[in-house]
Amino acid sequence: MKTSLSTFPQNRRVAAEAVILPIGVTPKGARGKILNAALRLFALRGYGATSVRDICKEAKVQTTTLYSHFPSKELVLAEIIQLGHTEHLRRLREALSQCEHQAPAEQLSALVRAHVISHCEYSMLAVVTNTEMHALSDDTVRPVMAILQESESLLGEVLLRCSQNSIFDVPDIELALRAIGGMGMRVAFWYEPNCGKTPEYVADTFANFAMRLMGITHDPQPG
Amino acid sequence: MKTSLSTFPQNRRVAAEAVILPIGVTPKGARGKILNAALRLFALRGYGATSVRDICKEAKVQTTTLYSHFPSKELVLAEIIQLGHTEHLRRLREALSQCEHQAPAEQLSALVRAHVISHCEYSMLAVVTNTEMHALSDDTVRPVMAILQESESLLGEVLLRCSQNSIFDVPDIELALRAIGGMGMRVAFWYEPNCGKTPEYVADTFANFAMRLMGITHDPQPG
Amino acid sequence: MKTSLSTFPQNRRVAAEAVILPIGVTPKGARGKILNAALRLFALRGYGATSVRDICKEAKVQTTTLYSHFPSKELVLAEIIQLGHTEHLRRLREALSQCEHQAPAEQLSALVRAHVISHCEYSMLAVVTNTEMHALSDDTVRPVMAILQESESLLGEVLLRCSQNSIFDVPDIELALRAIGGMGMRVAFWYEPNCGKTPEYVADTFANFAMRLMGITHDPQPG
Amino acid sequence: MKTSLSTFPQNRRVAAEAVILPIGVTPKGARGKILNAALRLFALRGYGATSVRDICKEAKVQTTTLYSHFPSKELVLAEIIQLGHTEHLRRLREALSQCEHQAPAEQLSALVRAHVISHCEYSMLAVVTNTEMHALSDDTVRPVMAILQESESLLGEVLLRCSQNSIFDVPDIELALRAIGGMGMRVAFWYEPNCGKTPEYVADTFANFAMRLMGITHDPQPG
DNA sequence: AATGAATGAGCCTTCATTCAT
DNA sequence: AATGAATGAAGGCTCATTCAT
């Protein structure tokens, strides 16, 4: 018996249909077409199951044209993942910057909201970013990994400050980080615009979940 | 700057090293060797990036031997995923059966614990099961999907019963399901036996997180 | 526009459906089942496009069983071709033996009739015999070729005797042999029992064609 | 005992050595080299027994080069067969067009001559065209079959007109079509330029055979 | 004879990439 | 930049055949 709560309504990697790259970040011309096509196919089928020919057919360019814009298929993926982590980090920073003098609880809430919203809005990007990083070579992955770790540090530090505040009651801060990070990351796989919930609503709810998970008490003290 | 809270310590899909298939489920002989080799490589590199020759080299059999046990590479994956979902469902059911007359809160706790422990103990299996299902054809995925949905229904129904109990305060039950399911699912990617935490400890903590997330109050009424 | 005279009503090598090996020649048991299955598949698909597995599936025996009866796939074909040429030669000889004291014209008629009837009755055998002999190795083909050449000699000698008789008027005896042999050989490809003509009728008509082709005059002298 | 009349002097599918594709029809460059190599090997060994590697070695190109000119091995065969039937039909039409106002007898003679000459000159093409069509899939064979049937219709209609003319005496027009078509078709298997007979001579003789077979009387009336 | 597993060569085809134009 | 042809490695898979049982 199938309940209305099923989390995997179909056999696709990502529920969302629409694209794709953050506005203002997509390059013009063939380069942009290639990146968007590659992102779409990597998200739906996976990097290993997508050929250069597939990408170029989707982008409506010649196969060799790809090689005048990128040195290899791997570096197409690298650029996409780079874009993904960069945009993600930018949003986290932006969210933090708007409440940097407020209590840790406010900061945590803002971070989780930004985390979730970006996974809703750029779900394909997030799926690729989170599932295909292992396809990059060690040298290629290094700068990308640095950005990812920076994002994690941001959340980790806020969690640390929260845990030092008596309004929270955290049994294991590392596991809390894993749990909060993980629940947000999964949003990219199931969210799609027609699901009946707005990104902001999901974000608010998940921020609430994060607060609860951290054991916040109902009458907070000043941070 | 890397903090001690980083969730992705290296560029691999799955942190765990060890294998692999649930005891008692692994077939004898070449068939079992092939399944374990394939599981390991699919988990580390992905299905698309693993060749039949790779699997057979790892399993120390001839490539043609694989084809006397499986009709295709896809059906090797299918069997692994089937095993994964079946074992997962078996554990959820077992956990539930041991508290079927208890309050929903107890049941939720038991389910989350089973969910997490199985993602710790069979992390490779869980990673493959959760990230490569899209590589199966429609016909092949159908029976597997049915098992997955059965597992989800189990958790969904318990959440539903919890939400109808006044000791819980759930803003959105569907999102709660996504959050709790998602945080457990991600465990497979980062957990490894030498991380300093036992599966039981992680499971207890995540069960606690789930309770909190569901807004449980501190003096529960009988379910 | 398709006329009712079209010679290739469908894309198959041989029009006939039914089998197969001459009665009394088919071995008992697995050996016979294998030969008949192989003949059928070689006729319909060709030797190169038929696998040992295909043959064994059709014959409902194990793959290895074939190898306890035949040393190789090639020698299955060799046996079939051998059977085909042997039966063909037997029939030509039998036909000749019944008119050995009659005029060459009678002998030619009898030979053409036997040639055509055997191509009607064992059309699958004839198709394989005539189109797959090149698949045999030099050593294997030698004894088979000898039988074939014996059959041809039979017809060639009768034609020669006819041409020396003044009731015939043959411009080129070698070409007459090719023409008469060739028109009979093609019968195996298009004849099928439900075509509305009996083998005897076709044989009589082709014998008449052969006579005409040899330029027979209407008041024959004694041979 | 081998007579000088033997029709199968050696174990090959086709007696002729030389090539191959009609002048003016062979494409330039690698495509043409591949077609000629494939034709030669298909004729000598059969389609099923010829690998893509064989073709490419013979054509002195890389195996992948074949795939930038043809979608598959099957479509190499399809193109060859298409060329064969097209050229054959073209020659029949050309022959007919030069005697379209003459008596049916003249037309029959012209058709048989064209039929035979094209089987002498392009014997490899004819052998492949006539023996490997069954290797094509249903969809691929359809347009090719249409051309073949058009050629057959041409001959069938002329035979029909002949049979309605009192100078002919045809016992069974359908069998006459089979016989005349079949004897010409077999020419491709045994004719070779050094056999001591020119294509024209063979063609004239077979045209004579065809007339006799149709029961022509020796003092024809105007058609 | 018959079986089930295994073998090594080879199948057709596609891959990411390069090069001369 | 863009093109069409070409390249060498590797892809998944099937082949005819063998062997221990």
Automatic annotation (TrEMBL), chains A, B, C, D:
Q: Residue ranges of the DNA-binding region?
A: 51-70
Superkingdom of this protein's organism = Bacteria
Protein's UniProt keywords contain Nucleotide-binding: no
Sorted alphabetically, the keyword list is: DNA-binding
Keyword DNA-binding in the entry? The reply is: yes
**UniProt-listed Gene3D superfamilies:** Tetracycline Repressor, domain 2
Q: Give the InterPro entries listed for this entry.
A: DNA-bd_HTH_TetR-type_CS (IPR023772), Homeodomain-like_sf (IPR009057), HTH-type_TetR-like_transc_reg (IPR050109), HTH_TetR (IPR001647), KstR2_TetR_C (IPR041490), Tet_transcr_reg_TetR-rel_C_sf (IPR036271)
Which residues, by range, are in coiled-coil regions? Answer: none
Domain called HTH tetR-type: residue spans? 28-88
PANTHER family annotated for this entry?
HTH-TYPE TRANSCRIPTIONAL REGULATOR RUTR, HTH-TYPE TRANSCRIPTIONAL REPRESSOR BDCR
Q: What is this protein called?
A: TetR/AcrR family transcriptional regulator
